[in-house]
Amino acid sequence: MKFIFSFLFVVSGIFAKGQHSSGLLYLNKSLTGDAINQVEAKTSGGGIEVTGVSPSEARIEVYINGNGRHNDYTKEEITKILSEDYDFSVTVSGNKLIATAKPKRNFNNWNNQISISYNIFVPANCGTHLNTSGGGISITNLKGEQNFNTSGGGLDLKGLTGKIYGRTSGGGIDISDSKEDIDLETSGGGIEARHCSGQIRLNTSGGSIELADLNGNIRASTSGGNVDAEKIRGELVTHTSGGNISMTSVSGSLEASTSGGDMDVEILETGKYVKLNNSGGSVHLQIPKGKGLDLDIHGDRIKTEGMNNFSGSMEKQSISGTINGGGTPVDIHAGSGGVTLALR
Description:
A hairpin with a 2-residue loop joins strand 1 and strand 2 (23-30). This protein is mostly beta strands. The protein is 6% helix and 62% strand.
């Protein structure tokens, strides 16, 4: 096995019996003189954390956790396990940190397997390519392209700028204070996004979506939960197949649909369009008074509040016409539920 740091060096100077949420500190390697601008980290049994810091604080910490015996391995036992059962290396080449930990074979006895996690501290202008099948991924305070994937944990992201592409099959997603180009997806949890801007794409097959203080072109969809949003600016397109939609303080263009719940939307400032579709519940829309609107509304029953200067046809189950001479298209379709349109 190719192992860049010799076991003698590890045992004599780098191994430490320090406690950590991910296990015991096994390797603590300074990166202060390497000017790292790219991180490639892979592990099959633990989590990965990458944090932007000042160059003088750059380092990588490797933590070991014994899955069967918890954290009671000795340093000699860990060294032996790594040597016999894992391809493990930590290298730096051309300002790129490469950390790899993968089993040489499949384990029949879970007690003999260990989890190997990374805490990586690098200069803020740094891109990443991260992959783990056994834990979560956390990235904080970085500028650059971030590409990451996990099959066994959540994604925790904060203070990122650049292209952000992440996938998880086994956990939720939390992103905040990030911007430019965000594309995140999970098959097994909810999504929470706060204080973000730019191109934003969020998708989950198994949880709810919470959006707060977002600005930009936003796409958010879920197959199994509610959508809650507040303080949204720009353009939002959102869909849920199995929950309610609740929105407050929306400024901009909006398209929202649900097949299995109610819809309650407050718009502070209209954009290019408003499209609301609900095949399984009611729709309540509050929109600013005094604006020019083109209305196309259909529902089992329709109620209006504060609607003046209307021209067109108004029936029990449909409204088609203009307010204040026309303007922003407002299309509402509630297949089996009622519609309330309030102008305030």
